[in-house]
TrEMBL record:
Origin species: Oryzomonas japonica
Keywords associated with the record: Transferase
Domain of life: Bacteria
A Pfam cross-reference name: Glycos_transf_2
Signal peptide from the UniProt entry: none
UniProt GO MF annotations: hexosyltransferase activity
Ranges for domain Glycosyltransferase 2-like: 15-152
SUPFAM superfamilies: Nucleotide-diphospho-sugar transferases
The protein, known as: Glycosyltransferase
InterPro entries listed in its UniProt record: Glyco_trans_2-like, Nucleotide-diphossugar_trans
Length: 328
């Protein structure tokens, strides 16, 4: 057990968990950003989720040079980042766990700022920062295209229920808390938004802290899993359903104010979002699945009906309507 009276000068070991799949294009930059941290009491654990490119060769070169700071483990492909992250957590030796996706990267003082923030309040189980969107080549998006959202701290389950405020590569989490909430959920319906599911579980029972000024670089490219709108919609619905069960079963800490938690409203919003995004992706099969599922749950709104009607029109007519909407 960690001594709660440890001085502020104490430097706990931080385990950085990095899942990777066919990450040869970007993983070297991600690893270098970990090794260049001003906070040096760390280890890096790379879990290769069945890559078929030369990811393993690239990582092995770093392992050979920086052993024992870096460890590498290969596993058969699971198709779910949660599985790779959980393996890394299990192998980790650190008191705190940070996560970095293999296509993202940190500024040099990233871990130092997270640890210093975590030391301020012993009750905090998670610290999170913000992000900067960059393109495939690392060029920052213009300010008007950067994400903007509130970053509350304390007991924030209600705020998290309304919106996913956290990104995996910005997180620093107590390892003991991760086991308290049974790690990442490895459900196939959480191929995306498994981080939202985890952060909802943690915020339901623990205080969290935020660092709005601390930003990591989130690389947007064609192979981003999070850009699959169908999988993302499914993941968000699953995560919120799981969180709703925590509320219904009385498993949310009393310190959280649940007055503004409207389960029905949030679920309806997510089904509308699922139908809308799959409609604009021309993924009508998935769109109709969400519609049928929503109807089964008693969810049928004007926005959903509109998209169902439009999807039945000839494709040329739909294309004209979409272009008119986008031009507004």
């Amino acid at each position: 057990m960690v001594d709660e009276n440890l001085p502020m000068s104490y430097q706990p070991l931080v385990s950085v968990v990095m899942p990777a799949y066919n990450a040869s294009e970007f993983i070297a930059e991600a690893i270098k950003s970990v090794l260049s941290q001003t906070y040096q009491h760390l280890e890096l654990i790379v879990i290769d989720d069945g890559s078929v490119d030369n990811t393993g060769e690239i990582v092995s070169e770093f392992v050979e040079k920086y052993k024992p700071t870096i460890r590498y483990q290969y596993q058969d492909n699971s198709g779910r980042p949660a599985c790779a992250r959980n393996k890394g957590i299990i192998l980790a030796r650190g008191e705190w766990i940070a996560f970095l996706d293999s296509d993202d990267y940190w500024i040099n003082g990233h871990l130092q700022q997270l640890i210093e923030k975590a030391k301020i309040d012993k009750e905090v189980a998670l610290v999170y920062g913000s992000k900067i969107w960059v393109d495939q080549n690392g060029n920052e998006y213009p300010p008007e295209y950067q994400p903007r959202y509130e970053m509350p701290e304390g007991w924030i389950f209600a705020e998290m229920f309304k919106n996913n405020l956290m990104c995996t590569s910005s997180l620093l989490v107590k390892r003991s808390k991760l086991f308290d909430v049974d790690l990442f959920n490895e459900s196939k319906s959480l191929k995306v938004a498994e981080d939202y599911d985890l952060c909802l579980k943690i915020s339901a029972t623990s205080k969290v802290a935020s660092l709005p000024e601390l930003k990591y670089y989130y690389r947007r490219h064609n192979t981003n899993t999070t850009l699959d709108n169908s999988k993302r919609a499914r993941g968000l619905i699953t995560a919120v359903d799981n969180a709703a069960n925590l509320v219904i079963n009385g498993k949310v800490a009393k310190e959280n104010d649940l007055q503004d938690v409207d389960i029905r409203k949030r679920i309806v919003e997510l089904y509308e979002h699922a139908v809308l995004t799959t409609y604009y992706d021309n993924n009508y099969l998935e769109m109709r699945r969400f519609v049928v599922e929503g109807i089964w749950r008693g969810i049928i709104t004007r926005k959903i009906i509109e998209k169902v009607i439009l999807s039945l029109l000839p494709r040329k007519v739909v294309a004209i309507i979409k272009n008119m909407v986008r031009a507004k």
